[in-house]
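Proteins fold reproducibly. Next comes a concrete instance:

***
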Amino acid sequence: MPNVQGGIIIKHNIKMHNNIVKPIISFIIIFIIVVINIKAISVFDNRQEVNKISNEIDATKKDVIELYNIIEEQEQVINYINALMKEIKKDIKEIKIEIKNVKGASSSDKELLGSWTITAYCPCKSCSGKYGNNSASGTKLKYGYVAAPFRLKFGTKIIIEDIGEFEVVDRFGTEKQNKYGTAIDVFFETHAEVKAFGKKTKKVYTIKEDK
């Protein structure tokens, strides 16, 4: 005869087991779904973060390129300013030399030769013929050099009133001018400068050499 009480107990145990297991399984399933959702949200958030970082990198690249262009432009400006400053310094130096030439020497440092005729010449054929910029002393001619009579030795420093200081390195084309002339021929690089200079009468001084 079957044990009815035992069967009732087994059924009761199974029912209790189902009542315990079902909530656990449900909880596990819910937990898994939550985890999956969290991971999905995390991935989505990571994608958003990656996109955000990517956009920031692109913006930074643009900023770097703009900064590079600005620096390049500034370097060009600086180079231009440096070149300009060199020219200004050169001009200032030349102005100082001119001031020194005209005003720097005191009456005790220079000797008046008189009022001489001041003309100009250049390396062109009409001025210098075959000699070009070759002087009688062998020195290559440039502005700052002059042709003068024999009474002024090569290397003599002179001051021409209102014009500046010069050095004698050349002679005139005629013997008469070299012996008896009271003229100075100032060398220029171009014939246009020669024409612009023209002919003048100026006081000429020799600069006394230090003993």
User: Anything to note?
Assistant: The two ends are 156 Å apart (CA to CA).
